[in-house]
Structure formats: C-alpha cells, structure tokens
Amino acid sequence: MTVAATPSPEGRGQWSGKLGFILAAAGSAIGLGNIWRFPTSAAQSGGGLFVLVYLAFVFAIGVPVIMAELAIGRETKKNPVGAFRKLAPSTWWTGLGWLGVVTSIAIFAYYSVIAGWTLGYMLRSFSGEFGSPISAADSGAVFTELIGSPGRAIGLTAVFMVLTVVVVRGGVSKGIERTTKILMPVLLVLLVLLAVRAMTLPGGMAGVAFLFQPDWSELSASVVLNALGQAFFSLSLGMGVMITYGSYFPEGENIASAGAYVAIFDTAIAILAGLIIFPALFAAGVGTNAGPGLVFVVLPTVFGTLPGGAALSIAFYALLAIAALTSTISMLEISVAYFTDEWKWSRRKAAVILGGLAFLLAIPSALSSGGSAFFTNFAGGGWLGLQNIIWGNYSLSIGAFGLCIFVSTKWGMPKLLEALERSGHALPAKGLLGILIKYVCPLAIAATLIFMAITGNYL
What is the pTM of this model? Predict the structure, then answer.
C-alpha cells in the first residue's frame, strides 16, 4: 500500500511512501561513518572478525532501536522533545528529547568540518592532483595544508552547511525526499562501480579476503565494543533522527519492515566501502594500519598507482561528499522539526537560524587541526576530537540507552508493538524484540559507556 504525500494537519508534511522514507532514512544513516569510519575500524580491529561482530550488533541492537524510534515518531507525529512530552507529560523523560536535539546540532557542527574536507579533496581530484603517483609524505602535506588553513577549513565548512540548509528549508517531500531520491541512487551506482573496479585490480581479492575472513585470535573487548560503537554511529541512533523521520511516516505503511530495510541498506553500503578500500590497498601493496588517515592520506597515494586513478579519485571523493550531505540533512532536520513544531517557526526561518548557529559552533572545530594553536591543543587532543568524545560517543550512547529504558519501563512493550502493527502488518518474533529492547540493548550500551569511561578508549 502506498500513501500519497499530503500535509499533516499541522502542515508538517510527510514522506510520499515507504520508498521515500527508506531512501531518506538510509541517507541519514549512510555517511562518513560507513565510508570512512567503517573501513578504518575494520582495518584496526581484525578485518573479517570486526565485520562479523558488527553485523551481529546491527541486527541484534541496531534494528530494535530503529524500530522503537520510528514507532515513537509515527505515534506522536512530533520531534524528539514533543514526542517524549506527549508520551510522558510532565516527566523528566522530556529531557531525553532535549538531549537528542542538542546532540544533533553539536554533531552537525563538527561533522560538517570533516564533510568540508571531502569537498576540498573532491576539488583537488578534479584538478588531477591524485591521478599520478604521490608519496606518503607529500600526501600527508596536502592533508595538513588543507585542514590547517583557517580560511580554507572554515570556508569549506560554510559551503557544506549552506548546501544542507538549502535542502532542509525545502521541506520533507520537496526538499529532503526529492534530494535523497537523486543522491542515493547516484551514491549506490558510484559505490558499485568503484567496488567492481577495485576487486578486479591485480591483488585486489586479497583485500576481499581480509574483509570477510575472520581471524579469531584478534577477538577482544576492544574489537567488540568498537563494532557496537560503529553500529550506533553509522545508524544515526541515539539523537532522535529516526523519531523525527518516523513522525513523517504515512500511517498505512509497514514501519517495522522499513526500519529493517534502512539497516540492511546502511550495512550494504559499509560493506561496499570496504570492497573499494581494501582491494585498492592490497593491490597497491599498502598496509591496513593507517588509522583515521586512511581516506585522506593513504588513498591518495594509492589512486596514482592504479589505472584510471584520476577518475577513481574524483568518483570516490564525490561519493564521500554525497554520503556526508545525506547525513547532515538529517542532523539539521531534528532541530528544525523542534522549532517548527513547538515554536511555530517557519521551516525557512528555522533552517537558516539553526544553520547559522551550527556554523558558529563549527568554527572552533574547523580551527582545531592546525588553524589555531589554542583549539588544536585544547584538552590535549584538540577541540574537534573533544566534541566527538562528548557528542559522538557519550551523548549518542546515553540517548540510545535512555530510549531503551523508556520503552521497556515507561511506554511499555505492548504499546510499542501496537504502534508497530497499527498499519495492519503483523510483526514476527515479538518476544525476541521484547528481550532485545529490555535486556540486550541496554546492557550492551551500558557496557560500552563503562568501557569508555574506564579505559579512555573512544569509538
């Protein structure tokens, strides 16, 4: 059953149907976490073993939390603050919604800085800079120059934020959905073409083996918790994205299956990214222990050694930029939904003002990679790194943990199941979903929080 796009009574708008939602929600989940962070984490955590544990967490923890967030959103037709206020009026649970709104703006601010780097690299690729061999030292110098130039770093961040604001101010169906219906197929085509090209390189299949063959000797608490963190960060859980997107979900559509499709789509993109990067690394004889510099320092040295390297570099960094944009759109939409719902601001006003606020918050992060000694050395690891620890690690984890507790103790599993099945689609394995939401999910998230607090190892 497909429901036509019609405005809600409050004029909020809604998705044109399940496909529109899946593309938009998958676009939210698919970002730098899939194409940059996933291969980096896999490389540092045993390759195939990390992938196996990651897949287990996506479907045992990620999918239940997605379903819960979507159900809350469609049930209330509200932003995260309004949703918890409606389901649990005059209680402190509203603070969980506030945490999501604040987290979304904070992550949007520092995430856009990194997204700006992808634009910078895409422009350099168009100039043909990565089409010929470049040494690791020269590649590192290029990266340092890009992120260390105050004007360039701030300017690229501003451009990326403007693109995000333009899309969000266009509305749900005419802005977000229309844009993701164009960008997501382009992203998928680029991924498949690049993956096929990488795997057919001489020696490329060794990279495929690294990605899929688990080495059980690498199993450790760090690998397990890194996989869990990757699943949460990648699926945009814990800050209310899926609550907000679920609030625009048509009543007649199967919300449970849509949530599962989002997780499947997101996971497939991460695997495809691995099928691009690892075969390329092995074909070029480059190691997999490059860490966070893998995408911006190591890969430029690889492209120049490959046939058609210039075209590959253009496609890859365009891919990164598209993935980042589909994520920042959802981050801004959370706070825009709050101000349009609760403060009755126009969408245009909310998008512009909140985008401007996020830009101001982003400036210290843009200056923290060499542009300013103060912000670069702030708290020992730099301002951007600190923001990721606070918001990308602790805040997302606390938000997801709180959601599980809210559903299992306050709202109740019967109401969650009723909301998921309201469209007339029976939910399989209801008992399993209850066990996962009540016990497995909160215990796993709590273990992650404790691990980070005790060891200082962040995701």
Answer: 0.91
